[in-house]
Amino acid sequence: MIAQLNRSFNRLADHQDTGILLLRLTIGILLLFHGVAKIEHGVGWIVQMLQAAGLPGFIAYGVYIGEVVAPILIILGVFTRISGLIAAFTLVVATLMVGIGNFFTLTKVGAWALEVEVEALYFFGGLIITLVGSGRYSVVSNPDYR
Question: What is the DSSP string of 106-121?
């Protein structure tokens, strides 16, 4: 009886392409919010952080690719795999830049001070999108552009 209920539920819930679309929309839209904030407020603080670390400041403008262009492409289902990888890479860089000071630090209750739950969600979301692609739902029908 339980197996039959499970089979029935599986038939009802078996919508992989819809699941991929929902994943793309979730990661793309939420990451795009960060990009919009960079558009509105600029990346000057990132330039300063990079220069303080001895890196060229112009690298900061790459955030527009990772937090604006890549999420839009993910949402649309265009060049989805490479866009997912760019999004994942962007989150690795952001985590290293902002959180590296807390990498070997513990909080008062013994938890890891590097709070990366959200960053990890975006990173693994981007990585999963890289692995699964756009699915069936995309604004382009040519698979070479998905």
Answer: B-TTS-BS---HHHHH
Which tokens sit at 38? 């960079």
**Which among 84, 101, 106 has a CA at the least distance from the CA of 20?**
84
Tens digit of pLDDT for each residue in 75-130?
A: 999 999 999 999 999 999 888 887 666 666 767 777 666 666 778 889 999 999 99
Q: Is the dihedral of CA 84, 87, 89, 95 positive or negative?
A: negative
Sign of the C-alpha dihedral computed for residues 25, 30, 33 and 34 taken in this order: negative
Which pLDDT band holds residue 55 (cuts at 50, 70, 90)? confident
CA 65 to chain centre: 12
Query: Is the distance from CB of 24 to CB of 31 less than 8 angstroms?
Result: no
* Averaged pLDDT for residues 24-51: 94
Residue corresponding to tokens 């990346």? 43
3-state secondary structure of 136: coil
